[in-house]
Design a protein that fits this description.
single chain; 186 residues; mainly alpha; 2 domains; 72% helix
Length: 186
């Protein structure tokens, strides 16, 4: 087998492995504090509502808590926006996308996290484009893709119901766009 063909197979294998890792065991990890707050916001609840309804001095059941984690016909997009307004430090795009995502596919942990995993796949073409703009080298772009595909940090962030994957895609895309614009200007 020619070295160039072997490298293409290696790229394909590692890329598929990275995609597999992003979707592996999405519902198997602990749904941690920040992800719980993601679910609260995308389902239209704020922290104060949880405190008022949960901390009543009585025993709280799992069903009482799940109410805040799952989509409800009682809560609308305007409730989600209101919940986001109480926390302006969070950019709303991810939460609005996630709101519609869980409305369409359900509010399970795997479904909620899968949006981030899918968004993280958009980072591959963005990273490729950025590397082509920076180095004008296909080889460097593919090496960057290989490293990114199996990077533990990026795989971890792709599996969290948080906006980190969207940030990654946005940063890569805007950086490549800026470089392209600067090059075209000159």
């Amino acid at each position: 087998m020619k070295p160039k063909l072997k490298f293409r197979w290696l790229i394909l294998f590692v890329l598929l492995l990275g995609i597999f890792f992003r979707f592996l065991n999405l519902d198997g990890k602990l749904y941690w504090h920040d992800e719980v707050h993601t679910s609260l916001r995308i389902n239209g609840y704020n922290s104060q509502e949880v405190i008022v309804e949960v901390f009543t001095g009585e025993v709280t059941t799992i069903d009482n808590l799940l109410k805040f984690q799952l989509p409800s016909s009682e809560k609308t997009l305007s409730d989600t926006i209101s919940a986001l307004l109480t926390h302006p430090e969070h950019p709303p795009l991810y939460y609005l996308l996630a709101h519609f995502w869980v409305q369409l596919f359900g509010g399970s942990v795997a479904v909620t996290r899968s949006l981030s995993a899918i968004i993280s796949l958009l980072a591959f073409p963005c990273l490729y484009w950025l590397c082509r703009e920076l180095f004008n080298s296909q080889l460097i772009a593919w090496i960057a893709i290989i490293l990114f595909a199996v990077s533990p940090v990026h795989v971890l962030y792709a599996q969290e119901a948080r906006e980190y994957s969207l940030w990654t895609v946005t940063i890569l895309l805007t950086s490549a766009t800026l470089l392209r614009a600067k090059r075209k200007k000159s």
